[in-house]
Design a protein that fits this description.
Chain B: Keywords: Cell membrane, Membrane, Transmembrane, Transmembrane helix, Transport. Chain B: It is a multi-pass membrane protein. The complex is a heterodimer of chains A (280) and B (303). Chain A has 280 residues and is mostly helical. Chain A has 2 domains: 176 residues, MetI-like fold, CATH 1.10.3720.10; 37 residues. In chain A, helix 2 packs across helix 12, helix 4 packs across helix 11 and helix 8 packs antiparallel against helix 9. The two termini of chain B are 38 Å apart. Helices cover 75% and strands 3% of the residues of chain B. In chain B, helix 7 packs antiparallel against helix 10. Chain B folds into 2 domains: 41 residues; 226 residues, MetI-like fold (Orthogonal Bundle), CATH 1.10.3720. The chains are: A mainly alpha (280), B mainly alpha (303). Chains A and B meet through helix 2, helix 4, helix 5, helix 6 and helix 7 of A and helix 1, helix 3, helix 4, helix 5 and helix 7 of B.
Chain lengths: 280, 303
């Protein structure tokens, strides 16, 4: 460690360079969002006009609202499904269909989006022919698609936490006669709640971010934010998109800062409790 | 307690247990597994001018059951060199991008795992944060940097290092930069997870026994982090093969990638059967990497 301080090693240099690589493009985006010129790459003085234009763009505003609604409901449903899947995989030992379930939980993590999108669209078309639902594709079909792939991410996050926690508390509750359902809601859930929050946030950002799957399963009625941004970006760079990017980066950074603060406080509290327990 | 009541309680538990297992299993079977069967089905049908634009596989008329299995779409993919080139181009591009990610990501993850404890969480959040902002916008950022009137060319021209702008946008190079940039966090995360778990005493033992640093790295660190290398590489490689947004925005005429071809077959040509056949072949090509990824992931999930 002392040697590290005198002369930064190869890996430390790579870490700094890697972080610069990750952050410089985002800094460029933010800086040019305050550019007065319409040409994104020529600096013509400081201006906030693009933010004004962004907030007057009805198409973008309504797409933001659509995306937020879908992301909220998809993340909430994904947390329910993903948590149940994680619980079943970590606590139930062996059962029929376990391999199938664990495959269906890990495969969406890597499945190319064009395949997922196409396959779900074909399902919805077939369902509409067979049972008459969904008659129109739109928010409901995007919600189902997002819930499905987001629940896989939630399951991985929650399963990691479920394996980490001390099972003796759950076992003690069961030994004292608490039924499994009660044990789950009063013992397990509170203990894994940070993982549930992390899983929900991850699912929310994944749903907000998805372009490809939503494009396949959406109908003419529903345009999500990535769909509107994509059709604008295809035409070339536009300072309004830079302004939007800046606001997204700001929101994500603030949320991360908040999460970091809570994680640190939780850690400090745990350490204080441990010290108390040791001195008692 | 009477035995029958115990039996009833156990039976109720069993029922509850089955219901809990059934919920995620049914949802994922219906919305993840079943759709693949439909892709296979449509890939064997004939394109038709109808809504939806494909013909039926099974027809019952005049007391005869006709089953049509049309292999034409697959033969068509083989006969047109465009598709073969697109598959090959995707695999090549994804492979190079994965290798670059690994070369950048491994030292990053190593430095993070060796950093003082209070720094590790901050560094981890710093690496992951970009991946929580919009994917589309991060690809878009490179359009402003790489284009002919973009940041890099402006700087180089301004410094007098070049006379005319370098063509970087709409090239294979831009696509690889885009993939590396977008997927780097997914490479670093599993590598970091494996490297933090590395037992320091093993490295000390190796150095006590006189092993050189490089030797220790190759014989101890690398094999012990193999799980992370495989997980990280698959998290980059598999989605990158089917990538659509990056070749669409940063690529040019020389970048032929299968995700983009599939998109165009579906949305522009409205040829659903050919798009389905393209998806089936892509899935087949990716089956081995996906199974490989799943084996490591489920070992993680169950350990």
């Amino acid at each position: 460690m002392m040697r590290l301080r005198r002369r930064p090693g190869f890996t430390t240099v790579m870490l700094v360079l890697g972080l610069l690589f990750l952050y410089l493009p985002m800094v460029v985006l933010v800086v040019y969002s305050f550019n007065a010129s319409r040409l994104v790459t020529v600096w013509a003085g400081f201006s906030t006009q693009w933010y004004g234009e962004l907030f007057r763009d009805q198409q973008i505003l309504s797409a933001v609202w659509t995306s937020l609604k879908i992301a909220f409901f998809a993340a909430s449903m994904a947390v329910c499904l993903g948590t149940v899947a994680a619980f079943v995989m970590t606590r139930y030992g062996h059962f029929r269909g376990k391999t199938a379930l664990s495959s269906m939980v890990t495969a969406p993590l890597v499945m190319p989006e064009v395949i997922t999108g196409l396959s779900l669209l074909l399902l919805f078309v077939q369902m509409a022919q067979l049972i008459g639902w969904p008659a129109d594709r739109g928010m409901a079909t995007i919600w189902i698609a997002h819930t499905t792939f987001c629940s896989a991410y939630v399951a991985v996050v929650v399963a990691a936490r479920l394996r980490e926690i001390d099972r003796s508390i759950e076992e003690a509750a069961m030994d004292l006669g608490s039924p499994p359902v009660k044990t789950f809601f009063f013992i397990t859930l509170p203990v894994i709640s940070p993982a549930l929050a992390a899983g929900w946030l991850l699912a929310f950002t994944l749903s907000l971010d998805d372009l490809v799957i939503a494009s396949f399963v959406s109908g003419p009625g529903a345009n999500t934010l990535p769909m509107v941004v994509f059709s604008s970006v295809r035409m070339g760079v536009s300072p309004k998109i830079n302004a939007l990017a800046t606001l997204i980066i700001l929101a994500v950074s603030l949320t991360t800062l908040l999460a970091w603060f809570f994680m640190r406080r939780g850690e400090a509290k745990r350490k204080a409790l441990l010290r108390q327990a040791e001195s008692a | 307690m009477m035995p029958s009541r115990i039996a009833g309680f156990v039976k109720r538990l069993q029922l509850g247990r089955r219901a809990v297992i059934a919920l995620p299993l049914l949802w994922l079977t219906l919305f993840f597994l079943l759709p693949f069967a439909l892709v296979l089905k449509i890939s064997l049908s004939e394109a038709a001018i109808a809504i939806p634009p494909y013909g039926p596989l099974v027809e019952y008329a005049d007391q005869t059951l006709n089953i049509f299995l049309n292999l034409g779409n697959y033969l068509f993919l083989l006969s047109d060199s465009l598709y073969v080139a697109a598959y090959w181009g995707s695999i090549k591009t994804a492979f190079v991008a994965t290798a670059v990610c690994l070369l950048i990501g491994y030292p990053m993850a190593y430095a993070m795992a060796r950093a003082p404890g209070r720094w590790q969480l901050i560094l981890l959040l710093l690496v992951m944060l970009p991946s929580w902002t919009s994917f589309l916008i991060r690809v878009y950022a490179w359009m402003g940097i790489l284009s002919n009137s973009g940041l890099i060319n402006n700087v180089l021209l301004g410094m007098g290092l070049i006379d005319s702008p370098l063509r970087m946008m709409n090239t294979q190079f831009a696509v690889i930069i885009g993939i590396v940039y977008a997927y780097l966090p997914f490479m670093v995360l599993p590598l970091y997870a494996h490297l933090t778990r590395l037992d320091n005493s093993l490295l000390e033992a190796a150095s006590d026994l006189g092993s050189r640093k490089l030797n220790t790295f190759i014989k101890v660190t690398l094999p012990l982090s193999m799980g992370g290398i495989i997980a990280g590489s698959m998290l980059v490689f598999i989605p990158a093969v089917g990538e659509f947004v990056i070749p669409e925005l940063l690529g040019g005429p020389d970048t032929l990638m299968i995700g983009k071809v599939l998109w165009e077959e579906f949305f522009l040509n409205r040829d659903w059967p050919v798009a389905s056949a393209l998806a089936m072949v892509m899935l087949l090509l990716l089956l081995i990497p996906i199974v490989w990824f799943h084996r490591y992931q489920s070992r993680e999930l169950e350990s």
